[in-house]
Amino acid sequence: MKILLFITLIFSNLISFEGEKKLENYIYKKFTGYYPSMSVSSIMIKANSTIPKGYKLSRVFFQKNSLKRENGNFSAIYSKDSYEKRVFLKYHIDATVPVFVATDAITSHTPLDSSMFSIKTIKFTNFYDKPIQKLAGYESKTYLPKGKILTSRLVRKTPLIYRNSTVNAVASDGGLEVYFTAKALEDGSLGQVIKVKRDRKILRAKVISQDKVQIR
């Protein structure tokens, strides 16, 4: 459960309650949307310039890369009638994120499950890569040493077809369907187009199910 304990907003002058609540919700939803299991303790926001009296929050601009850092910058547009003013702001977020930590070494291309990991809650600081939030349907992309935190660069979706495996292929010609076996030349996930080889001929095929492809 995501719990927002308190939010502190620091401005060079006061803004409307409506705009303040919008910024609170915006920043909170941005981070917890990107890290669904994140728990936020506090958010501090500081404006770098004054907000004219009577102007209301209109739009917020927040770069995706900022979601990797506890400190960062963003901007917002405040408007009144047909006038607009861009305000640059700084934020600091105090939060924690649970991560999966390998309890033993894991070889590459191993389907992942909870028995291979412990869950550790760490302070959100600077994440160069997004921690994985779920294991189902993923396998290790490379060797993972014991104690390694699982992140998106270290995993991939488990393919339905593996390179060098034998696949069942179907080719359509008008109302006629021809079935034969072929060798997969690439890994493939559902809907992905891969190369397969039959005899000496290389064909392109769409993955339609486990070990089955449709010749294009």
Describe this structure in words.
There is one protein chain. This protein is mostly beta strands and about 220 residues long. It has 3 domains: about 10-95, no CATH class; about 95-155, Antifreeze-like/N-acetylneuraminic acid synthase C-terminal domain (Type Iii Antifreeze Protein Isoform Hplc 12, Alpha-Beta Complex); about 165-215, SH3 type barrels (Roll). The protein contains 1 helix and 13 strands; from the N terminus they run E-H-E-E-E-E-E-E-E-E-E-E-E-E. It has one helix at about 15-35; strands at about 10, 40-45, 55-60, 70-80, 85-100, 115-125, 140, 155, 165-175, 175-185, 195-200, 200-210, 210-215. The strands form 3 sheets. Strands 1, 2, 3, 4, 5 and 6 form a 6-stranded mixed β-sheet that branches. Strands 9-10-11-12-13 form a 5-stranded mixed barrel. Strands 7-8 form a two-stranded antiparallel sheet.
